[in-house]
Specification:
about 350 residues, seven-stranded mixed beta sheet
């Protein structure tokens, strides 16, 4: 059996272009805007939002990456869950999608079939219809979806808009990228590998469906830019700072040991480099604890900024592993303190 993760250098969202390099390119290009385009790339939101002028907005996103699981069906399902997540992170309801496929023409086509089947079944779980796509021959496998969703114009979320005093709820454990690295080297337990795969396979649908009952001021999902990176985008675009309580952050326990042994995705280093002057470790966290905070996630959880009363009600309904992990406050010298 072909082990897909052994065919690539980086897996999942850890393969993303470093955010500093992407920012350098995008900041030098003036993009055209349409009046109906309510959200573009200016605040690093998870998807574009287009006003349909009937009380609804269209939400559009695209995501693809190299294998993050050895089993083709599981890889396809994780990739679909990750792609669809951006719609949930905007408070939207995903509807239709198209496959994006890069696949070696010399490889067993049964592998490609199972990738697509995994994506189809996960999309069906989300109520999404995959209606085509595009495939090219490439030396390495990459797969994902372009996803379209909808929301009411006055109900969609952005990653800006957090209030001074808001708390932040995280709905999934982090440490997935580190566990994936250790797994590729056969240096993690089967239980941690299963825990990471289960997390990546879990849709953010239920989290979104519960959260829309409350007054969510800002939202995002935690993917390749790491927990600290995505909180940075949320806090900075809201002109606030954030105090993170590491003791409240849910993470896969074995990730600490794996990080200590050096199983760090390359994306974690670029995340750390970009955020170095924007965050401050005031609590004396160890290097391996910091590594978890900079770890690129794949199909991570939602991060929801809301008042504490709503946050506690959400957690009571959603259950574990959702937790309050910190508080937004007035802008200070650094964007994040932990």
């Amino acid at each position: 059996m072909v082990q897909l993760t052994k065919l690539v250098k980086t897996s999942g969202c850890a393969a993303k272009l470093p955010v500093g390099k992407l920012e350098e390119v995008l900041s030098s290009i003036k993009m055209e805007r349409k009046e109906n385009l309510l959200v573009g790339f200016e605040t690093s939101d998870d998807a574009l939002v287009y006003d349909l002028e009937d009380g609804r907005v269209l939400i559009e996103t695209v995501d693809f990456f190299p294998p993050v699981a050895d089993d083709p069906y599981t890889f396809g399902a994780i990739s679909a869950a990750n792609s669809i997540s951006d719609i949930y992170a905007m408070g939207g309801e995903p509807s239709v999608a198209m496959n994006i496929t890069l696949f070696p023409s010399c490889m067993d086509l049964g592998i490609l079939k199972n990738i697509i089947l995994g994506a189809r079944d996960k999309a069906m779980e989300a109520g999404v219809v995959i209606a085509g796509g595009h495939t090219i021959s490439d030396e390495s496998i990459k797969f994902g979806l372009a996803v379209t969703g909808f929301a009411q114009k006055d109900r969609f979320w952005r990653n800006c808009g957090a209030h001074d005093g808001d708390v932040l709820v995280l709905t999934k454990k982090i440490g997935v990228g580190i566990i994936n690295m250790a797994s590729k080297a056969d240096e993690c337990s089967s239980s941690s590998k299963v825990e990471a795969l289960s997390s990546m396979l879990t849709l953010n649908k239920r989290a979104r469906d519960i959260a829309i009952k409350y007054d969510v001021h800002a939202a995002t999902d935690i993917t390749g830019f790491s927990l600290l990176g995505h909180i940075y985008e949320m806090a900075s675009s809201s002109s606030l700072s954030f105090d993170l309580d590491f003791s409240s952050v849910p993470y896969i326990k074995e990730a600490i040991d794996a990080a200590r042994l050096g199983f760090i995705p390359s994306g974690a280093y670029s995340n750390r480099e970009y955020l170095e002057d924007k965050v401050e470790n005031r609590s004396g966290l160890k290097r391996e604890e910091e590594d978890i905070l900079f770890d690129p996630q794949t199909s991570g959880g939602l991060a929801l900024a809301m008042n504490e009363e709503d946050a506690l009600s959400f957690i009571a309904e959603f259950g574990s592993p959702a937790r309050i992990i910190g508080t937004f406050s007035r802008r200070r010298d650094k964007t994040i303190y932990f």
